[in-house]
Design brief:
Shape: elongated
Helix content: 40-55%
CATH architecture: Roll
Distance between the termini: 48 Å
Number of domains: 1
CATH topology: CBS-domain
Strand order of the largest sheet: 1-2-3
Largest sheet: 3 strands, mixed
Number of helices: 7
CATH superfamily: CBS-domain
Length: about 160
């Protein structure tokens, strides 16, 4: 399974923010949309990712307040990215290694979508469920004549 397969099922809805936007406004968007990340775009290019991880670190560092910080001040300016052709098992390993919960999907310099660790886990579970159903169907449809031959053969 490829990243493009997940994006096809998930859809292409993206939420973006400008790096010069106030962090408080970005948090309003995240809360209103019930999302855990915003892709930070500047002049049509991905320049970072804002997730709750960066927000929490910034709030703690600022004494419990968001203050007048901008997104640029707290965003991850070098996020882990992947391509639509990336294999889902490879992406899973990359996300685990970098402790990344959200990974922008890039095709050359174009942002195609974002994959969350939840999306990866769901795809893996659904793939395993499908495989299990196929194996159970195969076993259930085991040819009857082979079983009858084994019972009828004298020792």
């Amino acid at each position: 399974m490829k990243v493009s397969d997940i994006l096809r099922v998930k859809g292409g809805t993206l939420f973006t923010v400008s790096p010069d936007q106030l962090l408080a406004a970005a948090l309003d968007t995240m809360a209103d949309r019930d999302i855990g990340s915003l892709m930070v775009m500047e002049h049509g290019h991905l320049v970072g990712v804002l997730t709750f991880r960066e927000v929490i670190a910034a709030v703690v560092k600022n004494g419990g307040s968001v203050g007048a910080q901008t997104v640029r001040a707290v965003m991850d300016g070098q996020p882990l990215t992947c391509a639509p052709e990336t294999d889902i098992d490879e992406l899973r390993r990359m996300m685990l290694t970098r402790h990344a919960r959200y990974t922008p999907v890039m095709s050359e310099n174009m942002l195609m979508g974002v994959i969350s660790f939840y999306d990866v886990a769901r795809a893996v579970v659904e793939g395993q469920d499908f495989e299990n159903r196929m194996l159970k169907a195969y076993i259930r449809d085991w040819p009857v004549e082979e079983q009858a031959e084994h019972k009828a053969t004298p020792n």
